[in-house]
Specification:
Layout lengths: L12 H8 L11 E4 L4 E4 L17 E3 L3 E2 L17 E9 L8 E6 L5 E6 L2 E6 L6 E4 L8 E9 L26 E2 L3 E6 L2 E3 L4 H4 L4 E9 L4 E12 L5 E10 L5 E12 L4 E10 L13 E9 L2 E10 L4 E4 L2 E4 L2 E3 L1 E7 L13 H13 L4 E5 L5 H10 L2 E5 L9 H18 L5 E5 L7 H14 L6 E3 L6 H4 L62 H17 L11 E4 L29 H9 L11 E3 L10 E8 L3 E6 L2 E5 L1 E3 L3 E8 L4 E7 L5 E8 L6 E7 L12 E9 L12 E7 L2 E6 L12 E3 L4 E8 L4 E9 L2 E10 L37 E2 L2 E6 L18 E2 L8 E19 L8 E6 L2 E7 L6 E18 L33 E9 L2
Parallel strand pairs: 24-25, 24-29, 25-26, 26-27, 27-28
Antiparallel strand pairs: 1-12, 2-3, 2-5, 4-11, 5-10, 6-9, 6-12, 7-8, 7-10, 13-15, 14-15, 15-18, 16-17, 16-19, 19-20, 21-22, 22-23, 30-31, 31-35, 32-33, 32-36, 34-35, 36-37, 38-39, 39-43, 40-42, 40-44, 41-43, 44-45, 46-53, 47-49, 48-53, 49-52, 49-53, 50-51, 50-52
Helix pairs in contact: 3-4, 5-6, 8-9
């Protein structure tokens, strides 16, 4: 839908020029945007008169935002025990002298849960949803000289909306860690009275700037770029202006400039202006290629700029059809993580500097993930912009816990989605808008989609929800997919919202390694066995491979109905609900300090390609430091066709392949030295290799700093990660070391520590152990620059010392011109989207013309209708359950793919015949959805599938929800064992 300026707000441009000409001399050159994070004071209390300017806050704690007041709780406490209540934040600031006559806006990237804002003792507004950005016009309450802003925050779990008394669905103790107060960035905007609005709809009622691309020519590297700005005139007379758009590349070079015709806005009116042009030689944003442009939109009066807004964005083409997602005309299968939106760290929560967002999210990218599905609530702007720079796709939810809702709670969700779309629609990394974590009604899906159509009609984003499996819902939603099992479609893309929930601590390698945690050992969870949530690293990694296998097997290129992939819950260990022995969730592929587990490298191997694997890799699970006499299986994860294992140069044999990527070598006798795995392609050519070496006895500690690429800033919010390793005499990490390390910190910095298994998880402790020979701690910069020294000691080991230097940051009157993400680089390592196909067709679907069954023939068509909510089932008294399919044309079939009711719980004895000749007989495997039955090749026109006995429910795959409810009903409980029930049947021939 095109947005145009309301006719009532315009006057003829010639008249407007005459009216406004005498006011041009007062126009400001451009807006100023300030970092407003410095010089705050915090009190966890609710003192009387704290909103008043004269209130004495000199005894309050000095902090720099972003800062959750209860940050110490992160990972030290279970989510349900996070501290809640009232906290006040106050700040004294001085406006620049040049701001006289300008508009002044305050922008908060978010607060938890509610924030009531006062300036100089006057209440300017309230924000309550705990998720989205908000802001206020404070022009009429600021004064020359010193000003005081005060914010009363309330993060109680049971907080209720003041106007309605309604709680917020997403304020849920299971899902959304409660980091209270002002845990996100704040900015101050100074603008002319003729200005482009801010995209803060709920509190300001404005939509800001919208930049988008259309008419793509990917090969020709061109597109039509459009910019639309909502413009407001707060002068007392009509203002005439021109609208100019400048596009600058990542080096600041101008690549295009274009304008719209002169126009005007009446006093007190708001309108939308637009300019478009075809732009050539574009670099399209892509996976691992976070190419961004600065689009500068400027309002000019009599040729002089009065307001400029710089929008950092990227341009990419998307398509959602035929069960697949295309990015820049190339099919891409979703591979990634369902990450908690808090994306938190120990003792800090979510409030990390932007470079740490890039570091953490960049690790996900380095594991070859291409998508993160944020869970339950919209992520903060900092993470969204991080994904832009990295070239990582993301799915953006609004706000929910689970299940559809009605009444005011649904209105709250609509409001959050509207605000989130408007605020984030210029971020190219957002590919999906998620309407609900657990299905929404057709009516509600239409409402959410209408928001997208109204506020982001050209952004190239699919509007959908978890589930959306029925043919009816697929006509409304643009993507869908369940959790923990696989869905396929020939229509909208279906990808799994969470396909593995198992947990395993990084500390535990395997059963044979100190501290000798037997795989699965741990307490019951809600009275049930919790073995899958107390895994060792090796079984956790192997399970990740097994779970992904179903999605890889049904990838694009394998037929008409395909899976568009899925995301594994989660990427980094999270301080949210858990099932294992600890008080936090350990299902991450990296731990809370972002140190990789073996599952990280397993994904890196399997996911290295847009669809098919494009770069063969291998990874040996585990380490090679064992006690003499140890005999154990060795597992290699590899995308090669076959793998050989060598120990100290001696060939041990070829691995037994399973789930495509697993190669197992049984009963390997440990010897010190080098273990090497070599992978070969189908022709026997060596394509990859990897090694593990035995490390010597622990001899020393080693420290390494991980800091921002632009240096450590003395702003009171920047962080340095300090990595500590236990190494042998040759400098090799000892992978089984568990030494306790004691730290000393000197200089202008604050100790924030790290995490390890133990009391309070060692959060904020000055002494904590390494796990697997490595750990990390954090220090936070002070507001004074200088030398920071970190020393580490451990009994019997050589100590280590590390020196850091923090840089000064200029702050005047509480304002800084240096924004938090200034200078962070774009990630371009993967290069532009390849022009070659992303997959090779491995089989071709043969359409079905019709079907007849031994009973319930009237429902036979439901077994091939591309609708996973319908099925055909034989009657319970049918002694010979069978169904016969008529193919649309004769074909030599090689495979039958079935989704059978009760697929997780049951194996069915099946016979398959083509034109009367038996081509398969056997038990179907249990799976996460679909089973593939290899057929003896036979050309024919009819296929008969019959049940030859009763279903077997031994060794069922049991998956439970946090409340011990079945995640999904597979139909087993409603289907007797002697009934044949087919959800979907597909027939394939060789390409």
């Amino acid at each position: 839908m095109k947005i145009r300026i309301p006719v009532s707000s315009l006057v003829p441009a010639t008249l407007a020029v005459l009216i406004s000409s005498c006011f041009v001399t007062g126009a400001q050159a451009a807006r100023s945007v300030y970092n407003f994070n410095s010089d705050w004071r915090l009190a966890v209390a609710d003192p009387t008169d704290a909103s008043q300017a004269a209130f004495d806050d000199s005894s309050w704690k000095k902090i720099t935002l972003p800062r959750a007041w209860n940050e110490d709780d992160a990972f030290a406490k279970d989510i349900v025990d996070h501290s809640t209540g009232i906290a006040w934040y106050r700040k004294h600031f001085t406006l620049p002298a040049a701001s006289r006559g300008q508009k002044v806006f305050i922008e908060f990237e978010g607060a938890r849960q509610a924030a009531e804002v006062y300036v100089n003792g006057k209440r300017v507004g309230l924000h309550e949803n705990g998720i989205t950005a908000f802001g206020f016009d404070i022009t009429d309450v600021v004064v020359p000289g010193e000003n005081v802003i005060a914010v009363r925050t309330d993060n109680r779990w049971d907080y209720r909306e003041q106007a309605t008394g309604q709680k917020y669905q997403w304020a849920d103790r299971n899902f959304n860690a409660n980091y209270g107060g002002l845990p996100k960035n704040v900015r101050l905007h100074l603008v002319d009275k003729l200005y482009q609005t801010l995209p803060l709809f709920s509190t300001l009622g404005t939509t800001g700037v919208y930049v988008y691309a259309r008419d793509f020519d990917i090969r020709g590297r061109s597109a039509t770029i459009s910019a639309e700005s909502e413009v407001r005139n707060e002068y007392s007379e009509t203002r005439a202006f021109t609208y100019e758009v400048q596009i600058r590349d990542r080096d600041g070079k101008e690549v295009a400039r274009f304008t719209s015709p002169a126009q005007s806005v009446a006093p007190g009116a708001t309108g939308v202006v637009k300019a478009s042009a075809k732009v050539k030689n574009l670099n399209f944003w892509s996976w691992g290629y976070g190419y961004l442009y600065d689009v500068v939109t400027t309002l000019k009066v009599d040729g002089k700029p009065v307001d400029s807004v710089t929008t950092r964005t990227g341009f990419r083409k998307t398509e959602f059809a035929n069960g697949m997602v295309k990015l820049n005309d190339r099919v891409i299968q979703m591979k990634g993580y369902a990450q908690r939106t808090s994306n938190e760290w120990p003792s800090i929560g979510l409030s990390v500097p932007p470079w740490m967002s890039d570091y953490s999210n960049g690790l996900a990218l380095a594991s070859n993930a291409n998508l993160v599905r944020w869970m339950h609530v919209t992520p903060w702007k900092q993470d969204i912009e991080s994904f832009d720079r990295l070239g990582m796709m993301q799915a953006m939810p609004a706000g929910d816990s689970e299940a559809d809702v009605t009444g005011r709670r649904w209105e709250q969700r609509i409001s959050v989605m509207r605000d989130a779309v408007i605020y984030n629609r210029n971020n190219p990394s957002i590919i999906f808008y998620e309407s609900g974590n657990r299905g929404v009604s057709e009516e509600h899906m239409r409402e959410m989609k209408a928001l997208r159509d109204q506020y982001d009609p050209y952004g190239g984003r699919a509007s959908g929800s978890r589930e959306m499996l029925s043919a009816k819902l697929q006509q409304v939603a643009e993507y869908g997919g369940e959790m923990l099992y696989i869905n396929k479609s020939a229509r909208i893309p279906m990808w799994a919202m969470e396909y593995s929930r198992d947990e395993g601590a990084r500390k535990f390698w395997d059963n044979l390694t100190p501290p000798f945690h037997k795989d699965g050992d741990g307490p019951l969870h809600k009275g049930q066995d919790a073995s899958p949530y107390n895994r060792n690293q090796d079984s956790h990694a192997i399970e990740n491979v097994k779970r992904w296998y179903d999605y890889w097997r049904e990838r694009p290129g394998t037929g008409t109905r395909v899976s568009s992939g899925g995301v594994n819950i989660i990427f980094s260990d999270s301080n949210t609900h858990h099932r294992g022995a600890e008080n936090y969730r350990r299902s991450g592929e990296v731990d809370a300090m972002r140190i990789p587990k073996d599952g990280y490298f397993a994904h890196q191997v399997m996911w290295d390609g847009w669809v098919d694997v494009e770069k063969p890799r291998a990874h040996i699970i585990g380490h090679w430091n064992y006690a003499p006499g140890t005999v154990k299986p060795v597992t290699v994860v590899s995308s090669a066709e076959k793998v050989e294992l060598y120990l100290n140069g001696k060939l041990l044999g070829q691995g037994r392949q399973s789930e495509r990527f697993l190669f197992t070598f049984d009963d390997v006798a440990w010897q010190p030295g080098e273990l090497k795995a070599i992978g070969y392609d189908a022709k026997g050519k060596r394509v990859c290799e990897t090694t593990l070496a035995t490390a010597g006895a622990p001899a020393a500690l080693r420290l390494k700093a991980i800091t921002s690429p632009v240096g450590l800033h003395a702003d009171g919010a920047d962080m340095a990660l300090v990595e500590v390793e236990v190494v042998d005499a040759q400098g090799r990490r000892n992978p089984v070391a568990l030494d306790m390390v004691h730290f000393d910190l000197q200089g202008p910095a604050e100790w924030r520590g790290g995490i390890a298994q133990g009391p309070d998880n060692y959060v904020l402790a000055r002494s904590l152990p390494v796990e697997g020979g490595i750990n990390r701690v954090m220090v936070r910069s002070a507001t004074q620059p200088g030398k920071i020294v970190v020393r580490a000691t451990a009994d019997g080991l050589k100590s280590a010392e590390l020196t850091l230097e923090s840089k000064p940051v200029q702050v005047e009157g509480g304002l800084s011109a240096q924004l938090p993400d200034a200078g962070l680089p774009l990630h371009l390592d993967r290069g532009p989207t390849p022009s070659t196909p992303s997959f090779k067709v491995s089989r071709v679907a043969v359409p079905v013309a019709g079907a007849e069954a031994s009973s319930n023939t009237e429902n036979a068509g439901k077994s091939f209708d591309d609708d996973e909510t319908t099925f055909w089932a034989s009657k319970s008294d049918d002694r010979h359950p069978a169904i016969t399919y008529r193919l649309a044309q004769p074909a030599t079939l090689t495979e039958v793919v079935l989704k059978l009711s009760g697929w997780r719980e049951r194996s069915y004895p099946i016979k398959v015949s083509v034109d009367g000749e038996q081509v398969f007989s056997g038990m179907t495997p249990k799976s996460l959805g679909y089973v593939t039955l290899p057929l003896k090749p036979r050309k024919g026109s009819t296929v008969r599938i019959e049940l030859d006995g009763v279903a077997d429910e031994r060794n069922a795959i049991k998956l439970t929800e946090v409340a011990n409810q079945a995640i999904a009903d597979t139909g087993a409980n409603q289907t007797p064992k002697g009934v044949l029930s087919i959800v979907e049947a597909e027939f394939y021939k060789a390409p």
